[in-house]
Amino acid sequence: MPFTSNRRTLLLGAAGLSGAVMAAPRRVFAQAAAPTAAPTGPHSLAPLPYAANANEAAIDAMTMEIHHDRHHAAYVGNLNTLLQGQDALAGLALDDLLLNLSRAPEAIRTGLRNNAGGHANHTMFWQIMGGQGGAPSGEVAEAITRDLGGFDKFRQDFNGAGLRVFGSGWVFVTVTNAGQLALVTRPNQDTPLMDGVRVLMGNDVWEHAYYLRYQNRRADYLNAWWNVVNWAKINERYAAAKAGTLRI
Amino acid sequence: MAFTLPSLGYSTSALAANGMCQETLELHHGKHHNAYVTALNGLIESKGLAGKSLETIVAEAGKAGADGLPVLNQAGQHFNHVLFWQVMSPTGGGDKLPAKLAAKIDSDLGGLAAFKEAFKQAGVTQFGSGWAWLILKADGKLAVTKTANGANPLSTGEGTPILGADVWEHAYYLDFRNVRPNYLDNFLNKLVAWDVVEELLEKGGLSTGQVA
């Protein structure tokens, strides 16, 4: 069910609410309305490392804008709100917070899990896109061949895993300090960082990641996503993992 | 027998003026719901579902926990969507509820405004994909609840749903983008077929008539 950009523009206009979404830049929503005056720290939303249309070969600019400026922003805002008055937790780096959720008061633990997870996952996600796709290069290419059966099998397995996530979630490649790779999925905004395992790369299979362009066709999104993967960045992350400096 | 995709009781453009556009309904009914029906039919033989009603399959899959998830995902979503299409109407919404339903909501949930707020909160706080529900419990009281992904109050054993709002992003993303609270406001104020909800209250829930 392909959509031309003209039809898409018309449909978005006909939906009638895009104006409302765009006209309220200071308010952030994910699913819960964020408080009107969210605290500004300790966590912050970095700008996208490229223009919103930089991933056009897989993801349209409007999706990138809503995804970063609304969804990701809401996770950061909600996270900061939950950390108010929690000095010990607020002092932890994001990966340490995710590793220590069991220390959080029960009343805010699920909220921290969802919002800290959402912040970490999206921070990683923006970094590893903005590229030209193609075959992986460098050390990562060798690791993919060694641990994941080569690029073609890896891509097929990764897409299959992403397709099988029922509901909202992520498909990740994890990396050990020794450079060993593995393919895993997590529901919602969970992340392997909650288990102390580093994430090399991952793809978001929440419907908000692809619905405006791909609608119900998650498989098409998963296939196209490889066109914007940034292998240079992923190689940097791989080297950092082996050096013990990869965090989020 | 096999499960089938029931027709909508209205055209796919019928809810557009009430905040659910034609494309949303075409995709949601014709693609998403249809995919659940197809996947569920594919499980009938391997999971030994033949001859069972949809409601029984959902309840049994829920009791089976993690082992029941492959069936629950598809069967739950089939049931959930059958209900969802029925509880919306082009003439839905408004605050004039049928008398029996209004009285029941007043006595069990503190009135329509309190119910709407509780229902909206249930939907907004269902993190990820899932549903918000108005249910009839075994003790005869109404309650508001929520479930994740394809689960529902039949699978959790909480009660019998008489109203459900889909909060998977596919239900609202074309119309409301990320702003789920507005979708839920719109659902409650412009889409709910209150007469159908009252009918389900009086009948003690939905009998889909769907059998494997």
Summarize the model shown.
The complex is a heterodimer of chains A (248) and B (212). Chain A is mostly helical and 248 residues long.
Note down, in words, how this protein is organized.
The complex is a heterodimer of chains A (248) and B (212). By secondary structure, chain A is mostly helical. Chain A has a domain at 138-243: Iron/manganese superoxide dismutase, C-terminal domain (minor pseudopilin epsh fold). Helices cover 48% and strands 8% of the residues of chain A. Chain A contains eleven helices and three strands; from the N terminus they run ααααααααβββααα. Chain A has helices spanning 5-15, 18-22, 61-82, 87-90, 94-99, 106-127, 138-148, 151-164, 211-214, 218-225, 231-243; strands at 169-175, 181-187, 198-204. A three-stranded antiparallel beta sheet of chain A has the order 2-1-3, with helices on both faces. In chain A, helix 3 (61-82) runs antiparallel to helix 6 and helix 8 (151-164) packs antiparallel against helix 10. Residues 1-30 of chain A have low confidence and may be disordered. Helix content of chain B is 48%, strand content 10%. A three-stranded antiparallel beta sheet of chain B has the order 2-1-3. Chain B is built from nine helices and three strands; from the N terminus they run αααααββαβααα. The mean pLDDT of chain B is 98. The chains are: A mainly alpha (248), B mainly alpha (212).
Structural class of chain A: mainly alpha
CATH topology assignment of chain B: minor pseudopilin epsh fold
Radius of gyration of chain B: 16 Å
Tell me the span between the first and last alpha carbons of chain A: 37 Å
| CATH 2nd-level architecture of chain B | 3-Layer(bab) Sandwich
Oligomer: heterodimer
> Main β-sheet of chain B: number of strands, strand sense, barrel status?
3 strands, antiparallel
Taken in chain order, the helices and strands of chain A follow as HHHHHHHHEEEHHH
Biggest sheet of chain A: strands, sense, closure? Answer: 3 strands, antiparallel
Enumerate the spans of chain B where pLDDT stays under 50 for 5 or more consecutive residues.
none
CATH superfamily of chain B: Iron/manganese superoxide dismutase, C-terminal domain
Taken from the alpha-carbon principal axes, the silhouette of chain A is globular
Q: What is the H/E string of chain B?
A: HHHHHEEHEHHH
- Kindly state the mean pLDDT of chain B as a whole number? 98
Structural class of chain B: mainly alpha
What is the approximate shape of chain B?
globular
The CATH superfamily name of the domain at 138-243 in chain A is Iron/manganese superoxide dismutase, C-terminal domain
